[in-house]
């Protein structure tokens, strides 16, 4: 796990990097260079720019001036330290670039100008990220309610730290692509066949980003060759700490009753026994005061406070384990499945020639894979009075829609192939 690769400082040469500072200056230079290139290559460069790229550049400017300053990491006093370049965000960017490159290759082989992909990519990317984040915020809305509106907005916008739902990205990304395709009167099914396999190449890198970030982890498991252990401050470490797992307890969540105490654990050494009742358990933030002010406060080590049968127990960060208990490698399984699905769909393109078939097969295949993956991941609770997570319910709907789409595609082809009588 490597959540932060490096940090861009808050300011350079007494000028902020983000907001009205260096970032906006560099963006303005890039825009000027782009306009100069278009002017030399095309006769009607400016009109083409307004129709295809103006919105994108406007969104980028708003991001540099408003969004990025809000998501800078803070120190113990709440002052900005800088912009953390996340492993998750970098892998997400690599995924987008590789997916776009493969999509350009596949569209060229289908007789479509690859420039279409370049013009479509910003729409799909922005729509996909917005949808993926929206689904995550709705699903875990309680996590994003801060002490102020600015804190709430900041929490919602920090998607580069993880917290994207793939299905939300697919749905909104597809909607954005459909909008672009319809607007420019392009062949929907043919483009869908070219693009959908590439989405899974992007997902391959995206899930590797999840591994670096420590999110989207699997359930706790016994030690074996593929099991993963995440370090202090990772999401799974915090979860296991809050549940008492790292001090050796197995607690019934509904009653707070301690069902078992692992022999030789911190809880066992403290004299806690099974059958006792945990009245309160929370992280101890007093140790955050020792974090230097030039360092971000995020994921700093914390202690643990626990009230059991009226008696208080506490453990400092130095006493707690240096890593989480073993969990299933859900990120690696998802990443490996995605790259396999990308390869299989690309190969299937030589077999299934009916337009739209590869697109529907891609949706259906991922629905089946994601449904099974949810049994390995345990970060989503059952919905609608069942044990099925929201992603499993969406998988069922996507699978049903994909099968219906395949039936329609092949019936449509059969009807079109029937010769009509001369009149």
Please, could you describe this protein's structure?
The protein has 423 residues and is mainly α. It folds into 2 domains: 4-18 and 72-219 and 328-417, no CATH class; 235-315, no CATH class. It has 13 helices and 10 strands. The termini are far apart. This is Phosphatidylglycerol--prolipoprotein diacylglyceryl transferase. It is a multi-pass membrane protein.
| Inertia-based shape | globular
Profile the largest sheet.
Answer: 3 strands, antiparallel
Percentage of residues in helical conformation = 40-55%
Mean pLDDT: 81
Structural class: mainly alpha
Uncertain residue segments? 417-423
Number of domains: 2
Count of helical stretches: 13
Q: Strand fraction band?
A: 5-15%
- Side by side, the strands of the main sheet go 1-5-4
Using only C-alpha atoms, the radius of gyration works out to 25 Å
Tell me the series of helices and strands, N- to C-terminal: EEEHHHEEHHHHHHEEHEEEHHH
Count of DSSP E strands?
A: 10
Give the N-to-C terminal Cα separation: 71 Å
Transmembrane segments: 20-37, 49-71, 83-105, 117-136, 156-182, 194-214, 332-352, 359-378, 390-410
GO cellular component, one term: plasma membrane
Enzyme class: transferase
Pathway: Protein modification; lipoprotein biosynthesis (diacylglyceryl transfer)
What is the gist of this entry?
With 423 residues, the protein is mainly α. It has helices spanning 22-41, 45-52, 54-70, 87-109, 115-139, 149-157, 166-183, 188-213, 235-242, 266-269, 330-348, 357-373, 390-417; strands at 4-9, 11-12, 15-16, 73-74, 80-86, 249-251, 258-261, 278-284, 303-308, 311-315. It has 13 helices and ten strands.
